[in-house]
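Sequence design from tokenized structure. All designs in this work follow the same two-part layout: the structure record, then the generated sequence. An example of the structure record is given first.
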């Protein structure tokens, strides 16, 4: 990074008039030492003047200064309460309420979680029941439970504090972090999802059909063959010649 780029980055992060004055002094000092060209110095002076006008305007209007040189998203006109009680997806809402009623957490801990957090923990417990761990992302757990990512994080944090789960973060250097590794560590919770919730996370509809009971035809046929083979098990058939001579 050259000197002009370094000074431009420094100017972008300035948030007070005192820092801006110090920047201008350092700028002209570098220009006097011939470390900075005349064109670069003029452009930096123009940026400093615009930054000074922005700082004065923000101080006069008592508004927060922008934290980045990029365009900021406009503030929503709705309050947090209105946004929380806004329209919701009915399918996700029904799925959240259905999973929360299945009570994947022991009764003594169920009161510590909200309805959405209980639904998120159902997804985590079902994966731990089937695979011994849960390595799904926060977004995937929220989509399966019908809740948002913040609700999933709150549920995992509360469960970790209560000693139900152990959440291991898998951070990567200079790369996107891997998903968390979640394991159930509470013994009574392990017994709960193993013994009292045997179908947790499994299919609730039958995947096969039982064989129909025998009607007895094969048994009767086998009995008649066995009696004829040993001779004397069944009744003697009629003889037409004997009946005529009698």
């Amino acid at each position: 990074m050259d000197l002009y780029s370094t000074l431009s980055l420094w100017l972008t992060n300035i948030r007070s008039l005192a820092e801006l004055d110090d920047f201008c002094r350092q700028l002209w000092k570098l220009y006097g030492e011939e470390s900075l060209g005349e064109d670069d110095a003029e452009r930096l002076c123009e940026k400093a003047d615009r930054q000074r006008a922005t700082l004065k305007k923000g101080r006069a209007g008592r508004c927060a200064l922008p934290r980045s040189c990029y365009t900021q998203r406009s503030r929503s006109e709705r309050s947090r309460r209105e946004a929380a009680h806004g329209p919701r997806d009915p399918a996700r809402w029904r799925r959240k309420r259905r999973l929360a009623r299945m009570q994947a957490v022991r009764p003594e801990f169920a009161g510590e979680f909200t309805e959405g957090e209980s639904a998120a923990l159902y997804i985590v417990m079902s994966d731990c029941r089937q695979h011994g761990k849960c390595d799904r992302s926060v977004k995937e757990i929220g989509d399966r439970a019908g809740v948002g990512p913040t609700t999933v994080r709150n549920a995992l944090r509360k469960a970790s504090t209560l000693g139900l789960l152990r959440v291991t973060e898998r951070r990567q250097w200079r790369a996107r972090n891997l998903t968390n590794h979640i394991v159930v560590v509470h013994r009574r919770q392990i017994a709960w999802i193993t013994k009292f919730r045997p179908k947790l996370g499994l299919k609730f509809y039958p995947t096969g059909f039982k064989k129909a009971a025998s009607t007895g035809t094969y048994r009767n046929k086998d009995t008649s063959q066995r009696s004829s083979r040993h001779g004397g098990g069944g009744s003697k058939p009629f003889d037409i010649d004997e009946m005529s001579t009698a």
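Residues 133 and 183 are 5 Å apart (CA to CA). We note this feature because it recurs in several other targets discussed in the main text.
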